[in-house]
Design a protein that fits this description.
Layout lengths: L6 H13 L10 H4 L2 E2 L2 E2 L6 E5 L2 E4 L4 E4 L14 H13 L8 H13 L5 E5 L2 H16 L3 E5 L8 H4 L6 H4 L5 H5 L1 E4 L4 H11 L3 E6 L15 H12 L2 E6 L10 H6 L5 E4 L10 E5 L1 H4 L13 H14 L4 H23 L4 E5 L2 E5 L9 H4 L8 H13 L2 E2 L7 E3 L6 H19 L7
Parallel strand pairs: 5-15, 7-8, 7-9, 9-10, 10-11
Antiparallel strand pairs: 1-2, 3-4, 4-5, 6-12, 11-12, 13-14, 14-16
Helix pairs in contact: 3-13, 4-13, 9-10, 14-17, 16-17
Length: 441
């Protein structure tokens, strides 16, 4: 039976548009609520009211296997009993203090134990906060003003991090001062030679280099061999603070993040999303001498006891033997199945990423190494196939962000049966998408 009823979602959207800009409280949700993707119409659920394990339910009563997972935070599964029970215990004790609590010390100790770069840690509310605090500390520590970022990497919505040197920048420059723009240097990803050439002339002006170690905000682009190792070396050579934005990778790629699994250790790292299995919490971790630089941080809701309890319970679950292996086994099964289906159907598409988080990109390229390759003119016609593909997935009860190249997430609650069903449905969806004749052909 195909899902086709979104009547209640549409009614709620009409109400939301009257009281909320664009009908959403985060523009990251707009791909589901806009009704169009890359200019093409799509029918999809816009409002939800229940989630459990690997499943979500929309307001029209439709059920989906969830590969969106809150855009990444859900690593154990929705409403995980161990997490929720520990939060309930905390709720019965107190709401908040405006002062310190015992469990925030316990959580900080766990993060320091598991994250290689973490000598000290600050508990915050959002990944945007954590990245912004990291950059401010780097500037304070080095006494320099400029920061190197990379095209297509997303570090939150503060002024310094939002704009980019790509077409979407026309939107993202709005309201941002010219001085802030001038302090940021935006370079292509995976081009170490270019970074080295730039630093030869301007290295003594750079406070920090910040990057997503895996670009999960853009087609799940992996770092080329030696690229991050090269960044680590040259930042040390020039006294530049290396910051990893592990808001997506942290506690999703492994216990301790990308740096723990792949062995490149930054000076500072920002964490969010999977650190709390759906509760709003983030963290900044790093070297003692940088973390204790004179740079003010605050926040009434920082280290909120409910969220700290959720994170403490989440990490405790993730420390159990076999949890990550199971997540990766499910994810790698789906990745292999998707690649086999792509080959069998003959559609132009690739899958990039790792077992816990990956992306399908409809493209003629065999690999995407940077933002420009992901959005070159020859790739754009394939967007219509992505829309058809995700429409077919939604009809058959598989939920994901519908944008071409957006990440799929896997959690510990996904089952082998769901993996098999996802592959089966995806193959049929690829067949439908393949029938679409591209305008460039």
């Amino acid at each position: 039976m195909e899902i086709s009823n979104f009547k209640r979602s549409e009614q709620l959207l009409e109400r939301a548009l009257k009281v909320t800009p664009y009908g959403v409280h985060s523009m990251a949700r707009s791909t589901l609520t806009s009704g169009k993707v890359s200019g093409f119409p799509i029918q999809c659920p816009k409002f939800f009211n229940k989630a459990k394990g690997s499943r979500v339910f929309d307001v029209d009563g439709n059920q989906y296997t969830d590969n969106l997972l809150g855009l990444g935070p859900i690593i154990l599964g929705h409403c995980h009993p161990g997490v929720n029970e520990f939060v309930k215990e905390q709720i019965e004790k107190a709401d908040m203090f405006g002062a310190n609590s015992e469990i925030e010390v316990e959580l900080s100790e766990k993060i320091v134990k598991n994250v290689p770069c973490a000598e000290k840690v600050i508990l915050l509310n959002t990944g945007t906060q954590a990245n912004t605090m990291a950059v401010r500390m780097a500037k304070s520590y080095t006494g320099r003003e400029k920061v190197i970022r990379f095209e297509g990497h997303y570090h939150g919505y503060w002024d310094w991090s939002l704009f980019d040197r790509v077409p979407v920048g026309k939107w993202r420059y709005a309201g941002i001062s010219k001085k802030v723009v001038e302090e940021n240097i935006i370079l292509p990803w995976n081009d170490l030679d270019l970074v080295e050439r730039f630093l030869k002339d301007y290295g003594n002006e750079i406070a920090a280099i910040i990057c997503e170690p895996i670009v999960f905000n853009c087609n799940a682009i992996m770092p080329e061999p030696g690229f991050l190792e090269g960044l680590r070396k040259i930042t040390k050579d020039y006294g530049i603070v290396l910051i990893f934005d592990e808001v997506v990778t942290g506690f999703r790629v492994s216990l301790g993040g990308f740096q723990s699994k792949f062995g490149v250790i930054p000076d500072l790292a920002a964490f969010g999303k999977a650190i709390g299995n759906g509760y709003p919490i983030a963290a900044l971790a790093g070297k003692k001498e940088i973390m204790e630089t004179r740079s003010y941080y605050g926040g009434t809701f920082n280290s909120h006891p409910f969220c700290v309890a959720a994170s403490l319970a989440t990490i405790t679950e993730l420390e159990k033997p076999g949890v990550y292996k199971y997540i990766y086994d499910i994810g790698e099964t789906i990745i292999k199945g998707l690649r086999d289906a792509i080959e069998d159907t003959g559609i132009e598409a690739i899958v990039q990423g790792v077992g816990s988080c990956f992306a399908i990109t409809f493209t003629e390229l065999k690999k995407i190494k940077n933002y420009q390759e992901a959005h070159m003119p020859s790739v754009i016609p394939h967007d219509i196939r992505a829309v058809v593909f995700y429409q077919e997935m939604i009809k058959r009860g598989i939920l994901n962000n519908v944008a071409n190249g957006f990440r799929w997430c896997i959690c510990a609650a996904h089952t082998k049966e769901e993996a098999s069903k996802t592959i089966e449905i995806a193959e049929e969806a690829f067949k439908k998408a393949k029938k679409v004749i591209l305008s460039s052909q």
